[in-house]
Amino acid sequence: MLVLLAQSLIHIAAGNAPDSTVYALAGGMAAFGATAAGALPVLVMRGLPQKLEDTMLGFAAGMMLAASAFSLILPGLDAAADLTGTKLAAAGVVVLGMGLGVLLMLGLEQFTPHEHEAIGPMGPGYERLGRVWLFVFAIVLHNLPEGMAIGVGFSNSDMAVGIPLTTAIAIQDFPEGLAVALAMRTAGFSVWTAVFAGIGSGFVEPIGAILGVGLSSGFAIAYPIGLGLAAGAMLFVVSHEVIPETHRNGHQTPATIGLMGGFALMMVLDTVLG
Asked: Which of 138, 161, 218 shows the shortest CA–CA distance to 27?
């Protein structure tokens, strides 16, 4: 993965990167900009009602779920069916990719020191790092699959996949950036630390986008596998982190309504832009 990332960065620096890499980088920067914009309001606001925050995170979760289904899994099934000739084999290819995505996130979570607001610090060697870095690593683990999904979406230079997917991720990155900065303020960090950490956490998205396009554009079967990988990683994050976070404060109903609204908006975006 690091070799593919370095190769893509070299092509970008040399000015001879393929269109898919350029599109992926632009999409990743758009997601980064949305995350940064979401963190900035913390400079002038002290907090949000917990119910509203949980509703916003539910909305983001709904968009991620719909993006995984409509912008990753369904195009992956179509691409795999064209390559394999059978629906069963196509489903197997995408399921393989989803499994790889889950394994990637499990591995990153197991071997990366990080801290969640509700659970506390975890991962090897977390006691040797400051709390700021533990929070930042937790945010990076959350944002990496979103960036990879953008890169995979553009790996075939397919605007019908890449544009609605990037739009959805950028829209839901705004409330996520705000929630991250507010969570760090609640945990006792200063305003500027919370804002800069929230902004910086989004920088992993263009890196993830470049990595995703590199993973998915090497050979034909890598494209549907990459779509499945990105979907599996995003579904893991939604189920493992986002939905439990929205439900732990007793606001399950508004969070679920927010999720349904986000899912519906992403479905409309994919229909209109796809």
From this structure: 161
Cα torsion at 127, 199, 212, 236 (round to 10°)? 60
Where b means 16+ CB within 10 Å and e means fewer, 66-86 reads: bbbbbbbbbbbbebbbeebee
Q: Are 124 and 111 in contact (CB under 8 A)?
A: yes
Q: What is the pTM of this model?
A: 0.81
The 3 state secondary structure assigned to the chain is: CHHHHHHHHHHHHHCCCCHHHHHHHHHHHHHHHHHHHHHHHHHCCCCCCHHHHHHHHHHHHHHHHHHHHHHHHHHHHHHHHHHHCCHHHHHHHHHHHHHHHHHHHHHHHHHCCEEECCCEEECCCHHHCCHHHHHHHHHHHHHHHHHHHHHHHHCCCCHHHHHHHHHHHHHHHHHHHHHHHHHHHHCCCCHHHHHHHHHHHCCHHHHHHHHHHHHHCCCCCHHHHHHHHHHHHHHHHHHHHHHHHHHCCCCHHHHHHHHHHHHHHHHHHHHHHC
Q: List, for residues 156-206, the tens digit of each pLDDT value.
A: 777 877 888 888 888 888 887 887 788 777 777 788 888 888 888 788 888
